[in-house]
Amino acid sequence: MRFLTLVFSFFFTILSIAQNIEGKVSNQYGKPLNGVSVYLDGTSIGTSTNEEGYFKITATTKFNTSLIVRFMGYEDVLISNPYQAKFFDITMAVKENEIEAVTIVDDGFSRKSKLEIFRKQFLGTTKAGKQCKILNEDALVLEYDKKQNMFIAKSYEPIQIENAYLGYKIEFDIYDFYIKFGRKSISEHDVVQSMFLGTSKYYDTSTKEIQRKNRNKVYFGSQMHLFKTIITQNWDAKSFVLYQGSFPVIGKDYFEITQENDFYKVKVTGNYMKTNELTTNRFFAAYNLLYNKTNQSKIVFNTDEFFVDTFGNNTHRDQIIFGGDLGTQKIGNMLPLNFEPTDAE
C-alpha cells in the first residue's frame, strides 16, 4: 500500500520491529554512484550512498511508505515497499534533457497574484504557514485554465521550503497541484477545492527550544491528532468533540475500529447514495468537529473505510476532505511521519 503526500494529506506508517534498509546504487554501466540521496518519503529518515554506492538506513520504526532514490541528472527511483528485499541493487537511468517550451499566455492574472494564491494554498495561512518561505520560487511554472477556472502549478525540481516556525527544511517534489475556483478568479474567497500531491523529505534545522515547542502546538488539534483520537476512541471535551449537524454525539458510535496486523482499520458509519441513474453508489458521511471548545472544522468521508497507524497517520486522504480549521492546515503545519509529541498539552 503506497501513497504520496496529499493535502487533504499525506501520510501513513506502520509501527513494527526495526529493520535495516540496505542496498547499492549504480548507473546503467554498473558504476557505483556516490552521494545519492536515499530516504523514506515524508520523514526525516534518510542517508546518502558512499563511494561504493552503498547505503544503509536504520530506523526503530518500520514505515509503510515509499523509499525515494534521488540523484541530480538521473531519473528518480521509487520503491513502494522498502522492506520487500533484504538488499536492493538499484540501477539509475540518466534523465533525458526534457526542456519544455513555456508558452506565455495572457490569462488576465499576473505571476505575482499567482504566487500569492499558491503560497496560501500550498503553505497555508496559519501562523506556521505564514512563517514558511519557498527558497526557489523561480522553479515554479504557474498556469490558469480559463475554461475550467482552475489554477495549476508545476515544478521541474523539488520545492525548497524553510519552515522557521517548526525548525524544518522540506524538499517537496510536486507531482500534482491544482486549485478550483467557483468563477474566473484567483481570489482565495472563490476557492472551491485545492489539492497537492508529491513526495517530501524533512531536515531538522531547529536551533531554538521554542521551535520544538511549536511542533507540539501544531500536533495537538491536527489531523494526525484527530485520527489518533479516532483509533484510541479517546474523545474528550478538552480535545475533539464530534457533531452530527449541530448536535454533539458519542464519537466511538460512529467509527468501528479493528486492528489488522500492526495498524487499525476504521469503518465509518454513513450512507451510500446515488447521484444519478448512470453512477454507482457513492459513500458519503459528514460531521462537524470542535477542538478544545474553540476550533471548528468539518470532515467529509467519501470512503467507508481507511487505515490509521499508531502515530495517527491515515490512508485515503484524497477521499477524506476537511473544512474549517483543519482545512487551513497545509504544508506549514505538516510534521514528519516519524514525529511524536514530547508531552501532552
From TrEMBL:
InterPro entries: CarboxyPept-like_regulatory. It comes from the Bacteria. Gene3D superfamilies: Carboxypeptidase-like, regulatory domain. Residues 1-18 form the signal peptide. Pfam families: CarbopepD_reg_2 (PF13715). Keywords: Signal. This is Carboxypeptidase-like regulatory domain-containing protein. It comes from Flavobacterium nakdongensis.
